[in-house]
Write a structure and sequence with these properties.
single chain; alpha/beta; ABC transporter transmembrane region fold; 6-stranded mixed β-sheet; disordered C terminus; binds adenosine-5'-diphosphate
């Protein structure tokens, strides 16, 4: 019961929107329950009329209108139903005219099908409405999670495995969906069915009902115990499932490397170990799940046996007996379903907790509610007394730097010196632990994310190509870009020619990760994206680092064009790409240790000159090959 309440509490914000349909579904669910009870009355009446056990017509006999409101109501409803049956199922009389027999035959044939039809129709309508409500509620829930995840800062994603995200949707939301899909309509229908059959049985023969129901608590026991076991195993399976999702992403997105190093067997071993754990947890869950029904059935049948013995002992009439046994058998169905519901809700609680945890996350970098719009960049970017650490160790310290508008600044340093961190701070993926970054005197923490990031175009080493068309991929830079602007950007990025050569030109879908394109082509799409953005600050983070020299030359030409008239922050490991920079700073362990123009730094005989030497560059030589 606690699980059901927990899931209802969790789901209510999403269900509330559809409360009208939900209310109709509940009313229909009640009707469904009542039609179930009508079978007890129906079978008893049918056998009475056909066997002639109690031949008097009810229309003549029901005159009692004393007693409580409910009893009165019940008597009236029953009398109306009995009256309706009188015409089609008149009590059996020897020597009655043949038209009466024909009616009786028709009544006998159609009586139960009509009841089944009414019950089925209300059951279907309830199920359909509940399905409609839960599908829409799940859609809203998923969108809400995406909305939340997208507000979280970069740090959240970098500290989590990719599988965590897919797991959250596939398994976490999936369990809640399965619960709503399979258990929700039963949750509305079956308790009413159970209750109304129970009431009908009490009215029919309360003593028999009491004997029959002594066994009910016994059937609930295994449901509760096994439910707990299922929940524990579900938690284990979900944890392992998350590992599975991460491993799949890891292995198949790095398949090139795996093949190159012949690591297939090693990866297969990792899958094997994981799947063994998963299978073990799964088997235990199945075990607990599958034992519920037989256990309930077995205990229910013992109760049924005792009941039969009692009935024969007491010598009840046949129609009454049949009506009662029908009710007892029908009672079993909702009981079984409600036992099943418990399993779905147990699993859903685990899923809902996963969702709750994700929804509780707060972005590390928050937008100020009173954030200003950053005005068009016009003067300078200033890093003032900047200090930053991801965890304990300082990555940047005592960092001061001014980048006047129009300056092309190169940033070099050994790997791990803090170059990419500098870019991340400028784009406000993280906030500095001390100091500030100001654009035209405004602290970037005081402006909206959009107005800040709109002024910048980032081209980095890892090019992200979405599984969309070429045009859509370029338009990511500026969603308002016209088709002409997209083509102009592609031309400026030296990409127009190869795009034209694709099967459907700009309408060619690029596939996941842009697998159809070479590294250089992908990078030129990224540059076209930066072109359409028309941002005044260009941030290049090792943009050509992973390209071969031919591709680099093509891409570099496009970058040179992109740099024109823009303020540039160019992070590069390969020094040759920085010849055209106005100024270069050298980072070492998060500090600026040298700065000056390319030629000045070469002459200084410091850290830069040492790096240049390692890369085969010398002062006077106009070596641009790197
Ligand atoms: P560079 O770009 O110069 O190679 P980075 O800015 O990427 O250097 O990294 C600077 C330091 O910060 C390195 O020691 C690196 O290990 C650490 N670092 C980078 N990103 C993270 C992160 N997301 N979490 C923790 N430490 C990080």
């Amino acid at each position: 019961m606690g699980n059901i309440l927990d899931i209802l509490k969790f789901g209510w914000p999403y269900l509330r929107k559809y409360r009208r349909r939900l209310a109709v579904a509940v009313v229909l669910g009640i009707c469904f329950g009542l039609f179930n009870a009508s079978f007890v009355w129906g079978t008893k009446t049918l056998f009475e009329r056909l066997s002639g056990d109690q031949p008097q017509l009810v229309t003549e006999t029901v005159t009692d209108d004393s007693g409580g409101v409910f009893q009165n109501l019940f008597v009236r409803v029953k009398s109306m139903a009995d009256t309706g049956v009188d015409y089609w199922l008149p009590p059996f009389e020897k020597g009655a005219d043949s038209s009466g027999n024909f009616r009786r035959m028709m009544g006998a044939i159609l009586f139960l099908p009509v009841l089944v039809l009414l019950r089925g129709a209300t059951g279907y309508a309830t199920g359909y409405l509940m399905g409609w409500v839960s599908e829409n509620a799940i859609k809203d829930l998923k969108l809400d999670i995406h909305r939340k995840l997208q507000t979280l800062s970069l740090g959240y994603f970098q500290h989590r495995e990719m599988g965590g995200q897919t797991m959250l949707f596939n398994t976490g939301v999936g369990a809640v969906w399965r619960c709503l899909y399979c258990g929700f309509s039963d949750l509305v229908k079956e308790p009413f069915a159970l209750l109304s059959i129970f009431v009908a049985l009490l009215i029919l023969d309360w003593q028999l009902t009491v004997v029959g129901l002594v066994f009910l608590p016994l059937t609930i026991g295994p449901v509760i115990i096994l439910g707990r076991k299922i929940r524990k195993q579900s938690e284990i399976a979900y944890e392992k499932g998350e590992d599975q999702d991460s491993l799949i992403v890891e292995v198949y997105s790095n398949i090139r490397l795996i093949k190159a190093y012949c690591l297939e067997r090693l990866q297969q071993k990792r899958f094997e170990t994981l799947y063994q754990h998963l299978a073990r947890a799964g088997i235990k869950r199945w075990q607990a799940k599958e034992i519920v029904n037989p256990a309930v059935e077995f205990l229910a049948m013992i109760g049924f046996g005792v009941l039969l013995a009692y009935i024969f002992w007491e010598g009840r009439s046949i129609p009454q007996l049949i009506g009662f046994l029908t009710g007892m058998i029908m009672l079993y169905q909702p009981l079984k379903k409600l036992a099943g519901i418990n399993i779905y809700f147990q699993e859903a609680v685990v899923g809902a907790n996963m969702v709750r945890d994700a929804m509780k996350e707060e972005p590390a970098v928050k937008e100020d509610p009173a954030a200003l719009e950053l005005k068009e960049f016009s003067e300078e970017i200033k890093f003032e007394g900047l200090e930053f650490s991801y965890e304990k160790e300082l990555v940047l310290h005592e960092f001061d730097l001014v980048i006047p508008k129009g300056l092309k600044l190169g940033v070099v340093g050994e790997s791990g010196a803090g170059k990419s961190t500098l870019v991340s701070l400028l784009l406000r993926f993280y906030d500095p632990t001390k100091g500030r970054i100001a654009i035209d005197g405004t602290d970037i923490r005081d402006v909206s994310f959009e107005s800040l990031r709109k002024q910048m175009a980032l081209v980095s080493q890892e090019v992200v190509i979405f599984d969309q068309t070429v045009a859509e991929n370029i338009a990511c830079g500026n969603l308002d870009a016209s088709p002409e602007e997209i083509i102009d950007a592609a031309k400026a990025a030296n990409a127009h020619e190869f795009i034209e050569g694709l099967p459907e030109g700009y309408d060619t879908r690029l596939g996941e990760q842009g697998t159809r394109l070479s590294g250089g082509q992908r990078q030129r799409i990224a540059i076209a994206r930066a072109f359409v953005r028309q941002a005044s600050i260009l941030v290049l983070d090792e943009a050509t680092a992973s390209l071969d020299s031919k591709a680099e030359a093509e891409v570099q030409a496009a970058i040179d064009r992109l740099e024109q008239g823009r303020t540039v922050l160019c992070v590069a490991h390969r020094l040759s790409t920085l010849r055209k920079m106005d100024k270069i700073i050298v980072l070492e362990e998060g500090r600026v240790v040298e700065s000056g123009s390319f030629e000045e730094l070469l002459k200084k005989d410091g850290a830069f000159a040492e790096m240049a030497l390692k890369q085969g560059l010398t002062g006077g030589a106009a070596n641009s090959g790197g």
